[in-house]
Amino acid sequence: MGMDGTIRTRFLKPETPYFLSHSVGLMPRGAAATLNKQVLDPWRMQGQSWDEWLAILDRFRTALGSFLNADPALICPQANVSSALTKILFSLPQPDRRNVILLSEQDFPTIGFVALQAERLGWQLRYVPREADLTDEEVWLDAMGDDVGIVLVTHAYSNSAMLAPVVSITQFAAARGIVSVVDIAQSAGTIPIDLALWQADFVIGTSVKYLCGGPGAAFLWVSPQIVETCTPLDVGWFSHEDSFEFDLKQFRYAPDARRFWGGTPSVLPYAMAAHAVETLTAIGIDAIHRQNQQRLGRLIDGLDPALIRSEPREGRRGSHLLYAPHDMEAAAARLEEAGIRHDRRDGALRLSVHLYITDQDREAARDALAG
């Protein structure tokens, strides 16, 4: 069965073309049945079902670890990317002479909002300018001066679709003693990621977008080289080395990523998210990436290059497009008339390509954009 046939059997696809995976990925078939079987049925039949529910979280960590080539013990479920980054920044030692957090003016606001809170700990923020080519490793290496203690990198930027050279950045940071945090919210599920090859200290992401797992199932990964030095402030009984010791006056951090967990965990989102990651794994991230880039490339080739507001170069782009036609409202009306789901950012129409986009969908989007 070809890729398109596989997709038709594995995802619940709307009748009209869906180009919003940068916001919410489509639901895999079987997600509702998985939720019922693993969460709701045990609860309905036996009430207290923590053995079954905690197994769901283990399943999610195992599935995600396999997908990202990472040890599941170094993955901790989180409610969202903001919470993950907050826990990371407030787990690190107080800054010394290296008191600068480097990030980009192209970062998603939630990253910037959290980084601003670190100023109360003595950190200062420095931004790579919005107009910089964030795909160029020299831009990053030149910005990581002697006073930089943390670098926040977004693998694929949500507006520009620029793909940061993560390996170069994290290797340089590791050599200079700079803590690196990589946000993969807009790349996980559409671009191959091998955490064993990266030298990042932390990686954060969410299942809601290209991982197709729905909202509420975010995560963080922590390097084995740094995990034992982290002392999160936001803790709870699931952060404890032995969650069932129940000694009110004795707290010991879990030896692995669980120290970032907190209190009683959410379960329901992770049943669907684990199922989604397993679905993508069965299809294969290399095949997904190859098809996504091929169809995005063909969409870009059919448009006026002067009106493209996102990164067009294969190998340096994520999986979405920003296009600013001369008559924005007319183009938007054509998209809506064709039933093509999209949104707007930075004065442009934004469309993303994922594995369930067909050639027919692409052609419809191109015709609507080009007029």
From TrEMBL:
Classification via Gene3D superfamilies: Aspartate Aminotransferase, domain 1, Type I PLP-dependent aspartate aminotransferase-like (Major domain)
Annotated Pfam families: Aminotran_5 (PF00266)
Residues in Aminotransferase class V domain copies: 51-304
Keywords of the record: Aminotransferase, Pyridoxal phosphate, Transferase
PANTHER family: CYSTEINE DESULFURASE, ISOPENICILLIN N EPIMERASE
Protein name: Class V aminotransferase
Keyword Plastid set for record: no
InterPro entries assigned to the protein according to its UniProt record, in alphabetical order: Aminotrans_V_dom (IPR000192), PyrdxlP-dep_Trfase (IPR015424), PyrdxlP-dep_Trfase_major (IPR015421), PyrdxlP-dep_Trfase_small (IPR015422)
Entry's Gene Ontology molecular function annotations: transaminase activity
Organism: Aquisalinus flavus
